[in-house]
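Extended Data, panel c. Modelled sequence:
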Amino acid sequence: MAAVSAVYKWNMVREEKKYIKLELPVIKRAQEQYEREQKEYVHSLREANKYSKLIFLGDSIISGYLYQKFSEIESTGVAIRYKIKGSLAKHVIPAYELVELISILIDNAMEVLSGTAEKKQLLFLFEEQEKQCWFRICIPHPYASYDEIESWFLPKSRKKGEKLGLYDIKSLCADCHMDLLCKNTLYEDKNWIEFAVGIKKADKP
């Protein structure tokens, strides 16, 4: 009986080994599928929330516009990065005018970017300072001379329906007493062009 029992146990062990051997590929495939689904889920969460920090700007009109604009630009293959430092306090110009101003800056920065062989990416920076709030739009670009930068702001003939240019924003900033900057800047050890506009806080002289 002992011999029969030992043979029976041995056969059971052998059958279990065969079963495990057959099941291992199935288990492995299930594990791989689970890992893929987890990665896809994490990616979808990141995609859904990547612009969530825009709400810290403190102005729903500006935040909503930027969310829409960033999504639109990304759909063209341009990578978007942004940083928010502080919040947009009460400012001296209406939100709809500020949207137009930022839109002109972004559109013209994208136009300058399209004319280069640099990697297509745009960096948006918002910084609250003591008396001003700054919006900065930066793009990778070879070093531009003063004359080249000046040429971007010269008046140009515009067809009906064409977007406003940098000359228009220069005039708008002068009329509203806002600061406008365009300069070379070093970012991640490479040259970038920074378009920036500074608006005064309503409660600051």
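The mean pLDDT is 77. This feature is highlighted in the accompanying rendering.
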